[in-house]
Amino acid sequence: MDKNKIICDLLNIKNDININKVSMNSKELENGDLFIAIRGGNNFIDEALKQGAYVIYDNKDVNINKENENRVFFVEDSIEFLQKFAKKWRENLNVKIIGITGSNGKTTVKDMIYHILSAKFKGKKTEGNYNNHIGLPFTLMRMEQDDEFMILEMGMSDFGEIDLLGQISEPNIAVITNIGESHLEFLKTKENVFKAKTEILPYVKETVVINGDDFYLKNINENNFENGKELVKVLNLVENEFNANKNFYYGDIKFDENNTNFELKYFGRKCQSIVERNYNTNVLGEHNILNLTLAIAVAKQFGMEDKIICEAIKNIELTDMRFQKIEKDGIIYINDAYNASPMSMQKSIETFSEIYNDKEKIAVLGDMLELGENELQLHEDLAQFIENAKVHRLYLYGPRIKSLYEKMVKKDISKYENLKEIEYFEKKDDIKNKIKRLDSEKVVLIKGSRGMKLEEII
Ligand code: ADP
């Protein structure tokens, strides 16, 4: 079935239209495209018609010229129309859908899976933040007949949202990265975050891949699944004994500034024997090796050979601001400022602690947002990771992280093993100037929530 037939069925009209791509942005329309006017988009219908587009809209008050009537279709709710359209388009194509949810690492795992699968298959992934009830169906509409995979990032901030994204996309494979403190503002407890993320499970068609060491996720049990659905766990070999089952075990992680070596152990189904392999990759940090193993576990569900995977992971390209190395004016910055939560702060500081030990290490940390009523305590709790880290100067910015500053300066600074300076700043420019003035070979970690825009320091 083509897109035209699906639209005509949904609108209950005669099948005599011929659309090209679907868009919700009137600025990027070309002749024959379908413009779905969502909310304010209803104000751009004239513009869309001038471009020669078909239009779906849901604002009754918009006046439509008689001459354009055959290109314009009114629906009760444009978003609902888009969701139904995307669901039908998905059902109609033979594309394997991979859905990714979890508190931290979704974008990273998405990029990793995309990079590995692209070595053998044709497919697409969610772009930017198109990961909600509007962005996800639009992403599905980008699928073409000859695509073999589509990787969907699934975002949420409350109950019911993942359920809806699951209903629309019915993923063949779902990945759940972890359960952290993000979105506590709405969901209150991590138990609730777990419940909300696992709303995906009933919609998965084939395989669920999870971080099996996560305190909450480890409770997911294959016995709870119906009709032959599989559970694959990614586990750390330090914490788990190897078992010849469906799971993937990673361990023996060694990394420097540019590369990481690690071991992967699993039971190879094709060769019916235990496989133990050493891999090398350009991504850093133990959390990223866990992320990468989740991605490899997905690639294995596609039957990809070890040799191709091994080659592909040497050069993973991650989205900007995910532990991204930037060199500017003789200073090395590690820009991890895309977002921050207690869990990702910990991972970031731990990884930073392990690298560049020949340089002066400065950590610039900003507020973590959306943490709900315990936010100040969660900022103060970061002290335990910083105290043990190999960080020499700690620069803090933001009203919430001030509580961490106040907690840490109470202690005599000589009590810290590596820290020789802790400072709180009111302005980002002051941090920038301070770093420039320091006369040492330095490397600067930058991490905070998106709203803090800490990358402006670079
Ligand atoms: P998301 O898309 O879920 O917001 P990202 O992939 O953009 O996550 O990563 C955001 C930050 O989370 C990264 O910069 C990193 O510091 C941290 N992170 C990534 N993966 C993990 C993980 N598995 N566990 C904890 N923190 C992680």
Short description:
The chain has 458 residues and is α/β, with parallel strands linked by helices. It has 15 helices and 19 strands. Strands 6-7-5-8-9-10-11-12-13 form a 9-stranded mixed beta sheet, sandwiched between helices. The protein has a 6-stranded mixed beta sheet with strand order 14-15-19-16-17-18, sandwiched between helices. Strands 1-2-3-4 form a 4-stranded parallel beta sheet.
Q: What's the arrangement of secondary structure elements?
A:
Blueprint: H1 3-11, E1 22-23, E2 34-36, H2 45-50, E3 54-57, E4 72-74, H3 78-92, E5 96-101, H4 106-117, E6 123-125, H5 135-141, E7 149-153, H6 161-169, E8 173-176, H7 184-187, H8 190-197, E9 207-211, E10 230-236, E11 248-255, E12 260-268, E13 273-281, H9 286-301, H10 306-312, E14 324-328, E15 331-335, H11 342-354, E16 360-366, H12 375-380, H13 383-388, E17 393-397, H14 402-409, E18 421-425, H15 428-437, E19 442-447
Parallel strand pairs: 1-2, 2-3, 3-4, 5-7, 5-8, 6-7, 8-9, 9-10, 10-11, 15-19, 16-17, 16-19, 17-18
Antiparallel strand pairs: 11-12, 12-13, 14-15
Adenosine-5'-diphosphate binds at residues 104-108, 177-178, 287, 290-291, 322-323, 336, 338-339, 343-344, 347-348.
Detailed description of the structure:
The protein is α/β, with parallel strands linked by helices. 30% of the residues lie in helices and 22% in strands. It has helices spanning 3-11, 45-50, 78-92, 106-117, 135-141, 161-169, 184-187, 190-197, 286-301, 306-312, 342-354, 375-380, 383-388, 402-409, 428-437; strands at 22-23, 34-36, 54-57, 72-74, 96-101, 123-125, 149-153, 173-176, 207-211, 230-236, 248-255, 260-268, 273-281, 324-328, 331-335, 360-366, 393-397, 421-425, 442-447. A hairpin with a 4-residue loop joins strand 11 (248-255) and strand 12. The termini are far apart. The model has no long low-confidence stretch (mean pLDDT 94). Bound molecules: adenosine-5'-diphosphate (ADP). Adenosine-5'-diphosphate is lined by residues 104-108, 177-178, 287, 290-291, 322-323, 336, 338-339, 343-344, 347-348.
